[in-house]
Structure formats: structure tokens, C-alpha cells
Specification:
By secondary structure, this protein is an alpha/beta fold. The protein has two domains: 142 residues, Rossmann fold (3-Layer(aba) Sandwich); 153 residues, Rossmann fold, CATH 3.40.50.1370. It is built from ten helices and nine strands. The strands form two sheets. The chain has a five-stranded parallel β-sheet with strand order 7-6-5-8-9. Strands 2-1-3-4 form a four-stranded parallel β-sheet. The C terminus is likely disordered.
Amino acid sequence: MTPRKDLLDIQSLTDEELEFILSNAVPFKNLFKRSVKKVPTLKGRTVLTLFYEPSTRTRSSFEIAASRLSADVTNFSVSTSSVVKGESVLDTVATLEAMRTDYVVVRHSMSGIPNLIAKHTNASVINAGDGFHAHPTQGLLDVFTLREVFGGDVRGARVAFIGDIQHSRVARSTNLLCRRMGMQTAMLAPGSLIPRELPQEIAVFQDWKELYAWKPDVIYLLRVQTERQNVPFFPSIGEYHRLFGLTDERLKWARDNGIWVMHPGPVNRGVELTDSVMEYERSLIDQQVENGIAVRMSVLYWLKPGSSTEDKP
């Protein structure tokens, strides 16, 4: 398969590339069971994490993934860099280019910044979340997790996304990939948090009773992103939890019906879910975190710095 330089979104990936990434994540995950969890695949390569937004899971996941591939990892701290003095993104990239970085993992509050950076560096750029646009590795790890749960064949599985869909790059990437893999998807959220334009095949529900009738196999809870909301989108946190959160009563329904529960993290207890969800036997939240490392190892293994296949037809 022809190597690709960057991973910027889900849409640009071919079916062959998707299968390559997901399939190769399996042996990388098997590596976790060994006493020595490292392989020399990227020995001598440099991976830099460039996060303009706070992150715990994604950043640490990429750092561990790169380390287990024997790459050298550098954490670029924006808060203590020249960025706070007014340095532009492209000036920062020029500095990193001079340092001969091989991979740059980027998170930014503005959509399209990873694409901009990718055009100005020979390093492989991985989009770790840009604005409301995309979070491709989250979508990949979510589908990898679902393939584990459903024995490899996810076609026909029903996944319901619940929460702040309007501001969620996770919902966009994971929902797109779920549908591409043959799953059915639905959305439940306050009307103010549902995008105006959605494909007709995506069911949109107003309350949990409607969702119950749809009979989902998986409910994917999304964090309420108050930091991205310049005006209130619902009356209060308590009201949101009562109407849309996975409460103890709804958790009982999930348990009785064998529903799997997912969440990209960080979790807001008492908002999108009750504390009991964290102990629920069909919660996939910890499994998503573990799988994130394997999938990101697979992505780093697949990409090739300096190639430019994206611009070719």
C-alpha cells in the first residue's frame, strides 16, 4: 500500500487504509501483554506533540504509543513557549522543521490548523483534534473497540450518540466512521446541540423513550463542552442530567438490555452520566483508553514523513 504523509481526517482515508490501520492495531495491542512492551520500529525518529488545547488522554496516549515504538518524544508546551509572546503557528512550525522533527501531533481550537501545518512541513502531521472539525484517531479507536466487542463484524450494529453533538469533533469522526463500516447511528440531545444539517439516514430523538424504542446496541455519551459554548444551550447542568444524562434508572435499562456504554473522556460525573456507570460491566471507557494506544501505534507505523500522496488523484 502506498504510504501517506499525514492523517488529518476520516473522509480522506480509503477502505484499504482504514483496514490496514485497524488490523495492524491488533498485534500492537498484543504487545501490551509482554514483559517488554517496546519494539524498535521508529528507533531514531522524533515525535513531537503540539497541543494548543489542554489534553490528558490523547496527548499521553500518543506519547506512550511513540515511546513503545522506540521513538524519541518531545512535548511542546505552548503555555511556556514563544506562542504566548505572539509567535504564529507557521513560525512555530518553521522552528520545528529546523529541528528535523519526523512526526507532529497537533491539537488546536481552530478547525483546519493541522491541514495548514501539514502543507508547510515535511514531517507527518496527525490531527489530534481541531475545533469542531475532526478527531480521526478517536474515531479509529472507537471503531476498533466496537470490532472487539462484536467479534470483528460491526455491520448492522446500532450506535446512539448522546450529548453535545453540535460542538463535538468526536461525534463527527466516530459517527462518520461507524456509518462507513455499516453501522446505524442515531442522536439524542437538546435541540440546540444537534447540528442543523444531518444525513437523512441518521435518526434524531427528542427523549430517551424514543431511543429505547430504537433499541440501540451502544450508547456513546459525549461531554458537554461548556468551554466552546459562548451562550447557554440549556437551562442548567442539573436539568441536562435529568433529561439527557445516563442516570441510575437509565443505567438499569442499559443493563437489562445488554447495552454497551462508551465515552471519549474526560467524564463529567453528574452531567452526562451517574457515578455508577464507571463500574458498569459493559462500560467500554477504559477499553477505549487502552485501545487508543494500540491504534495510535498503528497510525505512526503507517505514516511516512516526507511523502505527499494526499495531493495525488
